[in-house]
Amino acid sequence: MEEGIAPPLHNEPPPLPYSLHTRKKAIAIFWTIFIIDTLGQPLILYWTLWYLTDLSHNLVFSIVTACLGGVSVFEYFYRLHNLFRKSSRARPLNARKSWLDFFHINFTIVWLILAVELIAGTVPEEPYVRLVAMVLPTVMFYFGIVHLSLDILRMAGFKAPFRISSTPKGSVMPTALYALIEDVVAVDGGGGQIYRYALRTRYLSSPYFRRMLFEMNCFWSGGSIIFAAAFTAVIFTVSEPVAFTLGWTLPFAWAGVWTLITIPWVQSDLRREKKAWAENRGQGGIPWTDDITAPTARTRFESVQEALPSLLPWVREKQSAPSTPSADGIDGISPEANPEAKPGGQSNVDGVDGVANDTPTQR
C-alpha cells in the first residue's frame, strides 16, 4: 500500500488479521528450543568441558562455538527460502523477488559480525573468554544502534534511501519497530503479505499507532544500548568464568523484564487508540500518510510523563509553594514566592488532545 491511497473507511482502527493466542503452543516451543540452544547449551558445555575434562581450552571453545546457534542458522535459511521462492507470499509488498526484507538484511550483517567475533575469540591457543562472552551484548548494541538511528533520521525528516521492507524508496523513513514487526510476523510468524498490507494500512491511517511504535522503539533500542554498555563493563571487570556466565544470561534477563513492561503498556495504548477512534480523534495530519507532525491523543507514555512530577516527592516539593511564607525568608524560602503556583505545573500535552479533538473525521 502506498502513502496517500486511502483504503476503505473504518469506524475503528483498521484490524490486524493476526492473533498470538492461536499460536501460543508454536511460540512456546520455539522460544524453549531457542533458550536451550542460546543460553543453556553454551553454559553447560563451557562449565562441563572446562572443569570436568582434560581438553585444551582452545578445543573446549571450538566445541562450544561449533554447537552454538543451530536454531538461528535454521531460522536464517528458512527465512531466506520463504523470501526467495517463486510462489512466496511473505516477501515485502511490491518488492522484487531478489529483495530481502529489512530484518533479514540486518540478520545477515549481525551474523557476519558475530562470526568475526567468535573466530577472533577462539583461534588463539588460550581463548579470549571475555570476547566470546560478548556475543549477546553485541547483538543488543547492533540492533539498538540501528533501530535508534532509523528513528532519529525519521524525526530529522530524512526519506528512505532504499526500500525498507514494504516502505518504498523516497517515502518517509518508517519507525524501525514497524519494519521489525512487519518482517517477523509476515515471514517467521506466517502472516504473509496479507499481514504486511494490513499493518501498513493501520500504520498509515493511525497517527496514534505510529506514535506508540516510535515510543516503544525508543524504549527497546535505548534500553538495549544502555544495558549492553553496562553488561560490557561487567564482562571486562569480573573473572573470566563469571564474565562468560553473565554475558550469556544477563541479556535474557533484561529482555524478560522489558517484555513484562511492554505487554501491559501496549495493551493500554491499543485501548487508548480504539477510544480515540470512537471519539473521532483517530485521524490527524495528512490522511493515510506517514505524517510525523500529525497530532494524536495522549499516549500512555505521555500520561506517565505528566503524572511523574506528582509521584516524585522531591519534584513535588520543589514545585509546590509554601502555604504560609516565612516573614524573613526562614529555611531558605523567599517571602516573594508565588502562592498561586500549582504543583506539577501545566502540561502542554492537553493541547495536543485539544488539537486532536478538532481534527475532522476521515472523508
UniProtKB/TrEMBL annotation:
Sequence segments annotated as region (Disordered): 315-363
Superkingdom as given in the UniProt entry: Eukaryota
Segments crossing the lipid bilayer: 26-47, 59-78, 99-119, 131-153, 218-239, 245-266
Keywords, alphabetical: Membrane, Transmembrane, Transmembrane helix
Name of this chain's protein: Uncharacterized protein
Protein species of origin: Penicillium argentinense
